[in-house]
Amino acid sequence: MLTEQTPDSVLWNEVQKNSANAFALLFKRYWSAAFTSAFAHLKDKGACADLVQDIFLSIWEKRHNLAIDSFKPYLQASARYHVYRFMRAKKVSPMLYIDDLSKITLETGYLIQSPEVSTFELQKEIDQFLVKLPKRCQEIFCLSRRENLSNDEIAARLEISKRTVENQLTYALREIRILLKDVPGDFV
Prior knowledge:
This protein is mainly α. 63% of the residues lie in helices and 0% in strands. α1 (8-16) crosses α2 (20-42).
């Protein structure tokens, strides 16, 4: 007869023989330990309760294939694994696969280029605007954005201070942002 004093190893052997009573005793014995372990990381009671339920469900479903020597450490490790998996899943953005790119719209949350604003046309607009900037400002902008030089490299090449480079870039970018304020996306 199984009781609350029955050792874990005996209970686990009975679980592997499909004893729901033995499983209920292990569940009762270790639910709070698994919950506490998960809660230490998540600080979300609802999510932790769901994770612990998932852990025990997984143990029940895989009971014939699992080799658990020490139940409490196994549950704590499993809780940590489920917490990390849960946290990683929350960080991942869902991906939408579309066969026909013409079906992508701004409502789907993705940036698209309409026929009116192609990359070529956008580049042409920026080039026309750059001509209106002072020569030194144009040069610094081109070195930064087209040749991908750092502010330090630009300052050394032009023999000016890094602060001057920063000021000129700030000015050019502010003016370009004003020019492109109606264009969706972040092109600068």
